[in-house]
Amino acid sequence: MSPVDLSALVVIPALNEEGSVADVVRDVRTVYPRATCLVVDDGSTDRTADRARTAGAQVLQLPFNLGVGGAMRAGFRFARAHGYDVVVQVDADGQHDAAMIAELIDGLADADLVIGARFAGRGDYGVRGPRKWAMRALSSVMSRVARTRLTDVTSGFKAAGPRAVALFADEFPAEYLGDTIEALVIASRAGLTVRQIPVEMRARQAGVPSHRPFKAAVYLLRACAAFLLAMMRPRAVLGGDS
Ligand SMILES: Nc1nc2c(ncn2[C@@H]2O[C@H](COP(=O)(O)OP(=O)(O)OP(=O)(O)O)[C@@H](O)[C@H]2O)c(=O)[nH]1
Ligand SMILES: [Mg+2]
User: Is 241 contained in some domain?
Assistant: First the structure.
C-alpha cells in the first residue's frame, strides 16, 4: 500500500498543556485533514482535555498519570482497535512542525518507523552540556542496534507504519524513557526497519518542560539503564504474544 492510502491517527500525549494543545490540534487538522487527532490526556490538572476537544480532537483521559510511554501504548491500542494503519506521535507543546507529518508518513514507504530527527542538517535546535553528550552517545549506540545512522533517538516526533503499530499495541514500553530508547530497541530487535528524516524543532509554545538542565546527569544515567534493560529483554516477536 502506498503511504497516501494509509489511514493515520495522530497521537498527542499531553500533560498540563492547556496553553498549546488547541493550536497543535488545529495545525494538525489543517495540514493533514485526513488524519484523526487523538489527545491522550494523562491526568492533567488543567483544561487540556477541554481545549483539545473544542479544537476538534478525540480525547482519551487516563484516570491517573502513566507517563508518555503508557499514553502512547493507549494510543497504539486505540489505533489497532479502530483499524488505523499509521500512528504519528506529536508533542502537545507546539515544538513539532505539523507540516512535516506528511513527510514522516511518506518515509514509511521504505521503513516501519520514521523518526523526525533534530541535529540532522535542518534547523538550529540545540541542547548543551551533559544532555548533549548523553544524546550523542545514545545515538551512536542506537545507530548500531538499528543498523542505520540515527542522530536523535530521543525525538518524540515519529511515524509508525502497520507492522510497528501491531508490535507497539502490545509491546510499547511504559517505563521512563521507554517511549524513545526502549521502543527503538524493541522495534529493531523485532526486525523492523528504522530511518530518520531531518526536521526543525521549534521552542515550546507554552507550559513547562518536563526536563530541566540540572536533571541532565540523572537523565544520562537513566537513559543508559533504559538501554541496557531493553537489550536484556527477550526479543519481541511480531504477531506473537510473548
Ligand atoms: N501523556 C503524557 N504526556 C506527557 C507527560 N509528560 C510530558 N508529556 C507530554 O509529552 C510531550 C513532550 O514533553 P516535554 O515536556 O515537551 O519534553 P521535551 O519536548 O523532551 O522537552 P523540552 O525540549 O524541554 O520541551 C508534551 O506533549 C508533553 O505534554 C506525561 O506524564 N504523560
Ligand atoms: Mg517539548
Answer: no
Ligand 1 mutation pick, 12, 46, 91, max ligand atoms within 8 A of CB: 91
8 belongs to a structural domain:
yes
* Atom 21 of ligand 1: nearest residue by CA position: 209
Q: Which of 40, 51, 68, 97 to mutate to test the pocket of ligand 1 (most atoms within 8 A of CB)?
A: 68
- Give the distance between the most distant pair of CA atoms in the chain: 46
Domain that holds residue 154: 3-232
Series of mean pLDDT values for 10-residue runs along the chain (242 residues):
80 98 98 96 97 98 94 97 98 96 96 90 67 82 93 93 97 83 92 95 77 64 80 78 48
- In-domain check, residue 227: yes
Q: Domain count of the chain? A: 1
Full-model pTM: 0.89
Q: What atom of ligand 1 comes closest to residue 72's alpha carbon?
A: 1
- CA 149 to centroid of ligand 1, rounded, Å: 25
Of the candidates 55, 46, 45, the residue with the CA atom closest to the CA atom of residue 21: 55
CA distance 142 to 84: 28
Alpha-carbon distance 125 to 178, whole Å?
23
CATH classification at residue 35: 3.90.550.10
Length of the chain: 242
Q: Which three cell numbers stand for residue 39?
A: 489527545
